[in-house]
Amino acid sequence: MNTVLGRRARTLVAATATAGLVLVAGCTSSDDGDGGKKTAAGGVELVKADQLTTCTHLPYPPFQSEIDGKVQGFDVALIDLVAEDLGVKQEILDQPFENFKTGGSLNAGQCDLAAAGMTITEERKKNVDFSDPYFDATQAVLADKKSGISSFADLKGKKAGAQAQTTGEDYAKSKGLDPVSFESSDAVLNGLRTGQVEAVVIDYPVVQGWLKDKANADAFEVAEQINTGEQYGFTVRKGNDKLREAINKAIADAKADGTYKKLYEQWIGPYDESAASPSAS
Q: Less Cβ crowding at N or C end of the chain, within 10 Å?
């Protein structure tokens, strides 16, 4: 996903949309007296007492977006599980994607982690530490039904779009395309809807949600799904092993007790029980 440069950061309290999932704003956080360091259960160090501060970039449905005045989505629900384990509440800080992709927000102590549908790459690993993968992603070519585009190969000579600084844009460029760059997933899809481009290369889960709208489905279609081998991970600042381990534990526990499957089906779609990890298709 991507960035809206210069956008004013907003703090938004994340409310879990899943029934029965309760955040515990307990008393496990404390100031250890060394100038403001706060710790939660398991000795996890936090930037603010009694809360797990998550950086993200809105909107990026179905992973995080504002719905009825609350930030909700698959990423939000998973990090709520981490916060619950730590005995704190999750609070979300909306920032440009670049701020935390480079590790800047984490290193500056603005947030404890980033949850933003972020693909794990070797380049990004230089700046941040990733959790275990929590989602297998594919790219999609979404096209106007009247465009004659039926595959990625058909994009040659066509006006295509992608979200800036994303793996979708990187993939398109690596295959010789020069896509129109948009600031957010919403802007990409609006560019397609308004005819600024004939097709876009974008994460398939985003497309799935967008095509649930009948008007969109009547005019646009997935020309091709591209398995790029991408996996999403949550990020923490380099060396923050205790928080990274807490995130990994929450993901593993959710997969073991069925919570992950429930959240996946709520926010993404059908869950592939036969696969070792969920399929985005």
A: C
